[in-house]
Automatic annotation (TrEMBL):
It comes from the Bacteria. It is found in: Membrane. One of its GO terms (cellular component) is lysosomal membrane. Pfam families: MAPEG (PF01124). The chain crosses the membrane at residues 14-34, 46-68, 120-140, 152-178. The keyword NADP does not apply. The keyword Amino-acid biosynthesis does not apply. InterPro entries: MAPEG-like_dom_sf, Membr-assoc_MAPEG. GO terms for biological process: regulated exocytosis. Its main location: membrane. It comes from Photobacterium kishitanii. This is MAPEG family protein. Keywords: Membrane, Transmembrane, Transmembrane helix.
Amino acid sequence: MQLSKKQTGVFKGMALAMLISIIVISLTIFLDPFHYSTINQLSQKLTVLGLSLILPTLFLLVSIGRLAKFRFFSPEDIDGSGLTSATSEATVLQSLLQNTLEQIVITYGVYTAWCLLMPASWLSVVPLCSVLFAIGRIFFFRGYSQGAPARAFGFALTFYSTVLMFLVLVIYQLMIVIS
């Protein structure tokens, strides 16, 4: 089966995002760039978590704000999508918001579990993945209207960095249970 041009573009974006996510997470685990290995209190771990949630939350706020601003200035959309047939621009902004909300729910859970359950020396992964989340959202927002290949990298960087954290977390916890 031969992939279409769009499928090939999506695959390339996904593969690059996966590679970047693997490299960032692996190097961060091994190098502890923020020197969090000295953290020994729950309050310090929660501080790392809180700081790491700022960027993802910012992108959710931006998504909500963009749609709200657009609706305010659009006579066709001011009543909201539940009461009107949304214009194409409102539909795009709603899709960006919906996807960001879906990503952030996963992110909040994984970042929280990581900060509570993983070794302190691995905590640097969380703020760096928060940066990957932000970079991914920027690429996703910018590429969305140009189609799947243009948004694939942004989506995948947001998603794969969190999914890889989740997989490492689960494997690490299973190894603890087994040993």
